[in-house]
Design brief:
105 residues
């Protein structure tokens, strides 16, 4: 997937998964990139209160390091279509001054 298909990277505050049920990329504190749809709250990496400083959960089970950044995949309708914008600009000019614009054709 190209970068144009993604929203901006956002800093994560460690207070839970803000993208449950949405397709996202997440970056851990060690630089590991995760991609997919988090389910059921997203897991312990999203909740920093369940981790100690080493990245272990408080019950002693090894998990991913804390997620520090994330970004959501854009909906198909959010991608900018410059052809549509250019076409709308031309139509606006024709409506404003139809005779002048038609003489150019």
């Amino acid at each position: 997937m190209s970068d144009t298909e993604w929203g901006p990277w956002l800093a994560h505050d460690g207070k839970g998964c803000p993208c449950s049920g949405k397709y996202c990329q997440a970056l851990t504190s060690t630089g590991h990139r995760l991609e997919g749809v988090p389910q059921g709250g997203g897991g312990r990496s999203w909740y920093w209160t369940s981790l100690d400083e080493s990245g272990w959960s408080t019950d002693g089970t090894r998990i991913f390091r804390p997620i520090v950044q994330y970004r959501l995949r854009k909906d198909k309708g959010q991608e900018k279509d410059t052809r549509t914008e250019k076409g709308m600009d031309i139509l606006k000019k024709i409506v404003a001054k139809p005779q002048k614009e038609l003489e150019k054709v």
